[in-house]
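Researcher: Sequence recovery benchmark, item below. Answer with residues only.
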């Protein structure tokens, strides 16, 4: 907007500019000067629109590139999780169910969608460290002796070597889950012996999801437990092995848990 006015004092000039005018011309005005000022303003508008378009296009490209990288990270995490499960034992769709249980529990306990999404996608990586464990121990049909169990626990420590300090948030979430999902609420777990809320929330969530699915599916060393018996175990270990608040939320989500079991049941 260009103001053309018979008021030529500085106060009027400043008032017009403060009111939103782009330029101010005093009467009597020169026609040629007025046309030049109009052309200048049109050029400014054109440049502004062009810059806005370029910014929007750049933002779109950055968003697509970020999405592409996130999808690539998710893809690689899923494939690594499958490798870990194949190396471990024939546990069917265990990693898919653990991811879905974990995502459900994360959302139910009030975590924001971005964090819940990352927990759901990273949870299948919880046992990636087992690729460093001897197959004889992983597939042993009976109970592990003390030395074997000590060796088994090292699968948590090897995760630090596998992931190091990669800047990807998804990788860091997977790393934290793999390290902390064997911690126990009372501090008797491993690898750090953390207690209560000192255990990262993602570790506490995946701990419940992993144990519950392990109970309800057959393993080389045991038969599958019933749904009710598995829920009863979670309740019994609430405040000992598991975060009691999370156990309450998980138990209250029985319909959704059963739906996940049905959708991702083993062939």
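Model:
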């Amino acid at each position: 907007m260009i103001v053309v006015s018979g008021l030529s004092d500085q106060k009027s000039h400043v008032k017009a500019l403060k009111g939103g005018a782009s330029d101010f011309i005093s009467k009597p005005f020169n026609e040629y000067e007025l046309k030049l000022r109009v052309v200048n303003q049109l050029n400014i508008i054109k440049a502004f629109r062009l810059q806005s378009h370029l910014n929007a296009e750049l933002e779109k490209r950055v968003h697509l590139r970020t999405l592409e990288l996130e999808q690539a990270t998710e893809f690689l995490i899923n494939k690594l999780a499958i490798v870990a499960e194949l190396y471990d034992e024939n546990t069917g769709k265990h990693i898919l169910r653990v991811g879905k249980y974990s995502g459900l529990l994360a959302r139910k306990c009030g975590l924001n969608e971005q964090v819940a999404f990352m927990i759901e996608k990273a949870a299948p990586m919880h046992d990636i460290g087992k690729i460093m464990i001897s197959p004889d121990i992983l597939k042993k049909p009976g109970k592990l002796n003390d030395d074997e169990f000590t060796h088994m626990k090292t699968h948590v420590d090897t995760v630090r070597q596998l992931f190091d300090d990669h800047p990807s948030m998804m990788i860091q979430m997977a790393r934290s889950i793999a390290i902390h999902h064997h911690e126990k609420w009372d501090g008797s777990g491993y690898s750090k012996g953390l207690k209560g809320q000192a255990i990262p929330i993602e570790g506490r969530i995946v701990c419940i999801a992993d144990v519950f699915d392990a109970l309800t599916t057959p393993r080389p060393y045991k038969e599958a437990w019933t749904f009710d018996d598995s829920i009863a175990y979670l309740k019994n270990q609430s405040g000992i092995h598991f975060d009691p608040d999370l156990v309450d939320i998980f138990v209250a989500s029985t319909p959704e848990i059963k739906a996940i079991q049905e959708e991702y049941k083993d062939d």
